[in-house]
Every structure is written in C-alpha cells, then in structure tokens.
Design a protein that fits this description.
Oligomer: single chain
Number of helices: 10
Radius of gyration: 16 Å
CATH class: Alpha Beta
Strand content: 15-25%
Largest sheet: 7 strands, mixed
CATH topology: Rossmann fold
Helix content: 40-55%
Structural class: alpha/beta
Number of strands: 7
Number of domains: 1
C-alpha cells in the first residue's frame, strides 16, 4: 500500500504532517477552518493511520523522500513534532517544493547530548523506548498524557487525543519503534541555517516534550523565521488553543 495522502479545499497548497503515534485525522478541525482558502494536503506518515502498511524507515532522509515524492505540488508545509522534523528536512533537501514553513513544537534534535541540552534526557528516552517493546498501546497512551498539563484544559486535550489516536486503526508497532530510532539519531542543526523559506515557529510555553528553548533556537538560527510562543499551551497548541493557533497561522500564510 502506498503512502496515504488526502486533498481537500481550494487555493494555495498547505501540507500537514502529524506527530509520532498519531495520523492525519488530528488536523481535521484545522483543515475544516482553512479549506475555504487553502488546498489541504494531509499525509499519514509511514506506518501510521491509513499508511499503516507502508514501512516506516529508521532514517529521516528515507522518510523525507517518501513524503516529498508523494506531494506533487509546491506548497507551504506545516509539521508538528516528528512531522516538524520531516518538514525541516523537506525544506532543506527539496527547497523547490516549499514556499513557507510552519514548525509546531518542533526541534532539530529530540535527544540531549553534550552540546545540545534543550531536549529529552537520554535516560528518559531510553526508558520510553524500552516500555514501547513491552506494551506499545500503554506507552503510546502515556506519551499522549505528556502532551498536556494537569488542569481542566489539559484533561480535555488528553481526552481528545485518546479519542483520535486509533480512529484510523492502530499504528504498526514496528513503525513506532523505527520512529523512535529516527527521533533518537536525527540531528538537523547543521542544515537549519541553509533554509531560505520564510518560517513560523509556534511553541507551547509549557511543552513537556520539546523544551521552549529548542523553538527559540530554531527561530534564532533559521534565516527568515519568527517565533510565536503560546504561553499557556503544551505540546499540541492547535488543539488546546485552536483560535489563537488559527489566527497566527492565517496571518503568516496570507
């Protein structure tokens, strides 16, 4: 089965890339709000959603090639979390396909090392990867709980995410493992400064997966970027603060 790509709406093209463990259905409300002005191209990442039978590579470049070759249009690209890492690589390696770039709670490197601290500590990442092998359903659900706070808004967001996660069937467990390997080893810090497209970095101030300092670094390092911080948001501001997110996105794209 080939990569699943949906198209809806009319106007300039906008590609939507979701995060690890989810699928393109997570964008349904945003896509509905934009369909009168944009052609929404929603991609299910390999091994996720309706792309479940498409093998998820462990190398970022291979994932990027799959997705870039599945989108014929020149478009604006919006990537969230893992999708943001892919969108960054598309902008670097396929610049002719990218008019503008929106990075939502994204980072050039997900795991800390000696010269990169605004990221997940290696021991935490390794514990997460080990638990995935033992019980991937519970691990994915626990991952969702990290995407929101403990207040009423956070609990509402978790309920929304739990309702969406298996709406297109369960992801391929091996794709989840490969996706974590991709997150562990990918490092785009050396390529960011070569991206010429205008970029909007949207960052939740209370993100527990991608530290706000990572978003600030992207905005400072990308040649044509600006940072929009949503102060009370976590890792999924398009769900927790939909109107603020939509207004910011529209202002940048138009």
């Amino acid at each position: 089965m080939s990569l699943h790509v949906e198209r809806a709406g009319h106007g300039p093209a906008l590609v939507l890339l979701h995060g690890w463990g989810l699928h393109g259905g997570i964008w349904k409300d945003l896509a509905a709000a934009l369909a009168d002005r944009f052609t929404l191209i929603t991609v299910d990442l390999p091994g996720h959603g309706h792309s479940r039978t498409t093998v998820m590579p462990e190398q970022l470049a291979a994932v990027t090639d799959l997705i870039a070759n599945g989108v014929d249009e020149t478009a604006a690209w919006l990537g969230w979390s893992l999708g943001g890492l892919v969108a960054l690589d598309v902008a670097n390696r396929y610049p002719h396909k990218v008019t503008r770039l929106v990075l939502v709670d994204s980072t050039p490197r997900f795991v800390q090392n000696a010269d990169w601290q605004p990221a997940m500590p290696p021991d935490v990442f390794n514990q997460f990867a080990a638990s995935l092998e033992n019980d991937y359903r519970a691990t994915v659900l626990r991952f969702l709980s990290l995407q929101a706070g403990n207040d009423d808004e956070g609990r509402r967001l978790i309920k929304t995410l739990r309702g969406e996660i298996f709406a297109r069937g369960e992801p391929d467990p091996q794709a989840l493992v490969h996706g974590l390997a991709l997150l562990e080893h990918s490092d785009l810090r050396q390529t960011v400064s070569g991206i010429a497209a205008p970029v909007l970095v949207i960052q939740g101030q209370h993100d527990r997966l991608v530290p706000p300092a990572a978003g600030a670094w992207l905005a400072a390092t990308l040649p044509q970027a600006r940072l929009e911080t949503i102060e009370s948001a976590g890792h999924a501001p398009f769900l927790s603060h939909p109107q603020r997110f939509l207004d910011t996105l529209r202002g940048f794209l138009q």
